[in-house]
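Name: DML1/Misato tubulin domain-containing protein
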Amino acid sequence: MDIDSSQVLLSAVPKQRTTKRPHRFWSDYSRTFFHAKSLVSVGGELGAPMPGSYNAAHSPSNSDGRIRFETFSQGTKYFSELEAQQEVLDTNIRWFAEDADLLQGFQYSIDTSDAFGGLASKYLEDLVDEFPKLSHLVFAARWGNTQSVPDEQGEHAAWENRLARLRRMNNLQSLVQLMEFSTVVTPLSVPSWQAGAQVGADWRRYLGRIDLGDMHHAAALISAHLETATLGTRLKSRSETLSLLTSRLNWQRDTKLVHLGGAIPIPYPTPLTTSSASYGASSVDPVDAMLSSNGYGDGYRDSRARQRGEPLESETDLAKRGSQLVLSSWLDLSLPTGLTGSKKSKQLLYNFSHPYSHAAVLRNSNLDDARLGLGMLDTLLTHIHPPFGQGVYIPQSYNILSSFPNFFTSLDAESKAITTTNANSTAKVTKPKEVPVLSSLSVTPSSVYRLKEARETLREALQGHIPLAAYGLDAEDARDALKETRELVEGWIDTYSVDNGGDAGGDEDGDAMGTDEEYDVDQKEDDGLDWDM
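Structure predicted for DML1/Misato tubulin domain-containing protein:
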């Protein structure tokens, strides 16, 4: 795989590397053998995917006359057609449910940026109605650009802006439906390489050769954390069931929005040695040096302890230092991609360290690191206690398949993370066979950023000058439905902001739609609504 070797983006951030992207679709790199009842074709020969939903290049000139599967409403309408033609619920899904020996629940992976968000939402609604006592864990993934570009940026700017508008509205509508019917929902976004607010300030260190614009690379990163975070529910001697996991995360019953994050590979700290501990000898205070030479002071006691073979660092201190290394490389995959700023990074780190609930899984085959790993887990979960917080250690590292891209950097000959500051963060390394991973599902106040993004989409649609049809909304009551959605989103924002004085984001929320006067701006005299009380 050829890699672009250009380097400089910012003073402290190397430029993201890009690949030639030999894989167009997920089926080009998937190694899964599917059951005959697993795959269901959608759309037929007259349908086509939404442009930008896979790695292939797109432009308006590539249109071949087929119907693009690109709006939420298309997906909801196609649900009825698909069930009438193939009876997927009864023929496929029910067959697997009845064949299961011990059915814990349903885990969904849904693309919310195109019409599949609407299609999957309808299936979720029916399955919740059919299996109301089971847990329904949803991972809602978005893909593609959602930011508008200036009209003068290129000849296809208007076309790109149209797709970005549709994706924003699709993500919003999917989020609302999934929040209503699922037990918990985890939004997934590919992080921006340039964004500095992803919890860990040094998260690029061990992923220096990743191309986040390549679906192959992005899917590998997210799938590693998704599989690890839910691994405890699939073990033969499992630590918890899917129902217990979702109950722990949403114990408040009104915090369904969950964050997926983690560190891959895990940077373990190197225990201090006599040589590494003596690096600060030149900066010792003269008075302390004199006391030490006469058998007094901490320096003398430390030297005597070293002579007796005592460790230079307690297990607690080593675990604490290890947890700091993990936090520095932590990547939150559920945050909006546009978060920047050091102040916001500090707020995100605080929110992550003080969650409402937290379920973490550390997997590593090297049992020599087991005690240290458990100590690091305990340190990360200091501010959350059982049953709302739980850490699980699994002695099985994440297996790197041949189809997994080698985007790792700063690994030594044994495929362990190098924690020294002089490591080259862009040099290619030998592809490891397995790596230790720490992944977690957590409910934190940082969810308010995702909800504020949804509120901004609502504001744009309701107060902007672009017709709602441009957002893929063709129903007669589309505006009224958006107003009801706005009420829901505002309520969710209040839920996740209550512990931070109404501002979990750490900055002024002056754009909130909180007063009757502000809500009146989009009301028209001929809208058929009677506002007289």
